[in-house]
Protein: Neuroendocrine convertase 2
Organism: Coilia grayii
Amino acid sequence: MCGFLRHGPLAVLVLVNALISAMGETEDGILTNHFLVQLHEGSFDEARQVALEHGFESVRKLPFGESLFHFYPHDTPKTRDKRSARHGQSLHEDYRVKNVVQQTGFGRQKRGYRDLNHVEVNMSDPLFTKQWYLINTGQADGTPGLDLNVAEAWELGFTGKGVTIAIMDDGIDYLHPDLAANYNAEASYDFSSNDPYPYPRYTDDWFNSHGTRCAGEVSAVANNNICGVGVAYHAKVAGIRMLDQPFMTDIIEASSISHMPQVIDIYSASWGPTDDGKTVDGPRELTLQAMADGVNKGRGGKGSIYVWASGDGGSYDDCNCDGYASSMWTISINSAINDGRTALYDESCSSTLASTFSNGRKRNPEAGVATTDLYGNCTLRHSGTSAAAPEAAGVFALALEANPNLTWRDMQHLAVLTSKRNQLHDEVHQWQRNGVGLEFNHLFGYGVLDAGGMVKMAKEWKTVPERFHCVAGSVQETHTIQSENKLVLTITTDACQGKENFVRYLEHVQAVVTVNASRRGDLNMNMTSPMGTKSILLSRRPRDEDAKVGFDKWPFMTTHSWGEDPRGTWVLEIHFQGEVPQAGVLREWTLMVHGTQSAPYIDQIVRDYQSKLALSKKEELEEELDEALERSLKSLLNKN
């Protein structure tokens, strides 16, 4: 190969075209009546004359190489006919022609488009073809290829075996024929009625169908001719009934979150404080302790995995005002609809880690989420970010089957690293890259979960290094905020360098803020990292008229600086947005950084993983090239 390259670009072109011709004849075997023609002297007029004399209606000069032309007819049959063979032979014999290569036809396919019949997944379940969030071929006017990529994970053999997912909700119809075989009775409990049977309470309007629908998304049985298929259709599902009582208590929440943490691997929660755009609330003392115990002691010390729906308050709310979704201990999941846009009810915030799918905007009756429903029924109309969290729980179950040693933090890192932008888009919030090149969006987090990518990386995953916490700095002086002026404060930090709790690679960042305002809903808050990544900590909430409580030591959280170096100057900007002038007082801003001292994957696993892929692809290409070159050289020798 090197010997040929030394002869210059013309020899390379001849060799490459001989190579293409040889490959085409041995693989596809489809010869076209298009010809690459090289003339001794390459004027266009002469080329046109040669083409006409040999029966070609059209000719164009190629912009690469010297004296190269494309001879072709107006109407192109798919395969070579006798006439094109004669044309080729006569061109070879023409004294003006230096070289001729008849073009070989070969296949190319649009990436992203998949025909359901060409995906090697055979399911007998009647709603399977309606489950566009599993395999999107364009059903219900959706965007082909925009899905969870579960087909790849399933084809690799991962279906959730050995994993238990708890649905913390209004109960589960565990007698449903599409759920019964995967129901884990041992891990289930009813904290609303204090008994081991979390069956939904009957209402005429089927109000308590929420948990059953979520359960079907996770682990509906496959190939039983009933409803659809769960994301992790061999995973076990447990029911924790805890939402169906006149009021919630700290004891019920804490008991639910800490129920059987050595049996339950993943807890899925599609609930939280009221999404009315004016509530600021989160877990109470017992629930916080239960969650802390879960991530530290659950699953034999690897940590319980808490998946949380980000909220359905739409543009009127901000999920950083929800202390469950914005907790470092949870994986907050937003949703997109089947064409990649945000649903109108989606809340945005900097604590969202990734996205899955739900319904919205589309009038097509099949654009909702297909799943199980109460009393043995099925539905196409499950919706909200309620539908998004169970899908994520199912994807995480596939990853846990691939690697049962994953910790709760490993799962977050995998979500950051393998989630994809795909075709998600929003009119307001654009995609950006943080200081280490990770792509994120204020609405979608790091993108849509990719089950295939996650299980492949999970198999090779090494547990992330120990986590450290550092109080990076604090502003305790009182500062006034006026409508006409933006308050800008800075904290310069070494991130506890030189101490045992030094943080070099970021995971979560918290801005603990105490602030009061004449109208809390008009407050806007942004924070910029030393590496230039801007996080929107708080957006305007037009329905929030609070003028008394404000935010009291509220931990606004961002995941957007994941992997960055926290050392340097952080900038906090606070201003009012609204038509009526407002005033406020900032009393505290404390910066908390959480992460590792050694690189979890930015310098190690990513490069190792990419190197393996590159090496394997390089070896495959080299083998193919060697074989193709050998064929082409033999062909050239035989012709000579």
